[in-house]
Amino acid sequence: MEKSVSRRGVMVGAAAFAAVLTPIASAAENKVHEVEIESFEFEPAHVRVRLGDTIRWTNRDLAPHTATADEFGWDTEELAQGESGDVIVTEGIETSYFCVFHPHMKGTIEVIS
Fold first, then answer.
1. Is the CB of residue 51 less than 8 Å from the CB of residue 109?
2. Where does the record locate the signal sequence feature (predicted)?
3. Whole-number average pLDDT of the chain
4. Residues 96, 69: contact at Cβ < 8 Å?
5. Exposed, middle or buried, 76 (CB in 10 Å: 0-12/13-18/19+)?
6. Which of 46, 74, 89, 98 is the most exposed place for a label (fewest CB within 10 A)?
7. Nearest to residue 39, comparing CAs of 101, 105, 100, 85?
8. Which of 70, 97, 64 shows the shortest CA–CA distance to 82?
9. For residue 113, what pLDDT is reported?
10. Nearest residue to 101 via CA among 74, 61, 64
11. DSSP class of residue 76?
12. Residues 6+ apart with CB under 8 A from 90
């Protein structure tokens, strides 16, 4: 016995399929921006990001470091050599940061649309 497929069934199936794919497509558009901490500097010191992107700081120095927002709204916490810390870019994220152990180390984030 063959089962007939209705137009409504096809439309409901197509809508469900599209709903499943939408989050995958959105997640694929978000980028991870790598910032290396080396020789007591953030490299690059200025990153251009979009909402939903991730910034990842990786410590290449022997000394511990952090990436900490100037007003302490976000923080990677202490990163030992070889460790990484991530921050997801959200609406209203603080855009200037420094290392709490070495306050002369500074960086900026530029959120673009």
1. no
2. 1-27
3. 85
4. yes
5. buried
6. 46
7. 105
8. 64
9. 85
10. 64
11. -
12. 51
Q: 0.85 cut: is pTM over it?
A: no
Residue type present at position 13: G
User: How far, in Å, CA of 90 to CA of 53, rounded?
Assistant: 8
- CATH for the 31-111 domain, from 2.60.40.420, 3.40.50.740, 3.40.980.10, 1.10.340.30: 2.60.40.420
> Could you state, in order of their start, the residue ranges of all structural domains in the chain?
31-111
- Above 80 in pLDDT, residue 4? no
- Exposed / middle / buried, residue 26 (Cβ in 10 Å: 0-12, 13-18, 19+): exposed
